[in-house]
Amino acid sequence: MSYGDYLQLDTLLTAQKPRSDKNDELLFIVIHQSTELWMKLVLHELELAMAGVREDRLQPALKNLARVGRIQAQMIQSWDVLSTMTPAEYSGFRDALGRSSGFQSFQNRRIEFMLGNKQAEMIEPFRHDAVRSTALDAALAAPSLYDEAIALLARRSLAIDAEVLTRDFRQPYQASASVRAAWLQVYRDPEHWWDLYQLGEKLVDVDDWFQQWRFRHMTTVKRIIGFKRGTGGTAGVGYLKKVTDITLFPELWDLRTEL
Ligand code: HEM
Ligand SMILES: N[C@@H](CC(=O)c1ccccc1NC=O)C(=O)O
Predict the structure, then answer these.
(1) So where does substrate get bound (predicted)?
(2) 219: CB partners within 8 A, 6+ apart
(3) Where are the alpha helices (DSSP H) in 19-170?
(4) For ligand 1, what atom is nearest to the CA of residue 233?
(5) Disulfide check for 57: which of 52, 160, 191, 229 has CB 3.0–4.6 Å away?
(6) Known binder of ligand: residue 224?
């Protein structure tokens, strides 16, 4: 066994195939591929974290979520590398991308669903692909990381409304007064609820860094394509600006006003 065999570098390093003769297309491909690799690890860690929360093994789940946070930091940093590309350099090969866009990132959509950003229409770009659309249908219907956290609050005898626990998980999560009151109880007496308090803060980290990733996507796109429309059919920056406001775990933000 050699270094290259173990890491399958023949496969990995022959998968960069620019469609133009422009120098900067390699940067564009490498940034996307490395992001997809990080997403692969995020999915793995999120699955473990969700299983940990579900099975009341909170300490390992916290460790998985801490790792997700450090990966998100890398993903946010990588916008700085892409920002070295100028509008003229990108325009040189943009036509070669055709109508492909980030809407077609399966791993990104699975992460969004696992974190609770449930928008069923986002499966449409995958309908021609039986394997991926089936996996996304399943992720849409399953409880998110936050649904698992709320079920844990209930198992710890915090009062959670029944309709929150038995909700249709395909629907976007709606903030609930009982969930807010439960988290508030945890945050007002951290020593008594130490592991739940840590879980709450890890979830805020993930939400915060997800928002930062979206924000940097939007600013990077603004400096590279200005206000051109997106290849995926949206208005471009205007659309990306709108999605920066998405909040995954609303009560964990709301309760901060009351502390
Ligand atoms: C020059 C670089 C980039 C430009 C100009 C760009 C532009 C855009 C635009 C305009 C959209 C909205 C869909 C559309 O109308 O096309 C979009 C969506 C998206 N992009 Fe990018 N992007 C860039 C780089 C990246 C990178 C490096 C990633 C990392 C994988 C990425 C991931 C995504 C994802 C996941 C979406 C869907 C977002 C959502 O629905 O919330 N993009 N991008
Ligand atoms: N939506 C981008 C194109 C784009 O960024 C893209 C195209 C192909 C593969 C990945 C891409 N990145 C994420 O949106 C654009 O409008 O220029």
Answers:
(1) 28-32, 90, 94, 231
(2) 79
(3) 25-54, 58-82, 87-94, 106-114, 130-141, 145-155, 162-165
(4) 15
(5) 52
(6) no
Ligand 1 atom nearest to 31, measured from its CA: 27
Average pLDDT, stretch 183-197? 98
State yes or no: 229 annotated in a binding site: no
Would the annotation count 128 as a binding residue? no
Ligand nearest to C-alpha 117:
1
Mean of the per-residue pLDDT values of the chain: 98
Q: What is the pLDDT of residue 206?
A: 98
Q: Whose CA is nearest to atom 3 of ligand 2?
A: 101
Q: CB of 232 closer than 6 A to ligand 2?
A: yes
pTM: 0.97
CATH code, 17-258 = 1.20.58.480
ipTM for the complex shown: 0.98
Do residues 230 and 101 make contact, with C-beta atoms less than 8 angstroms apart? Answer: yes
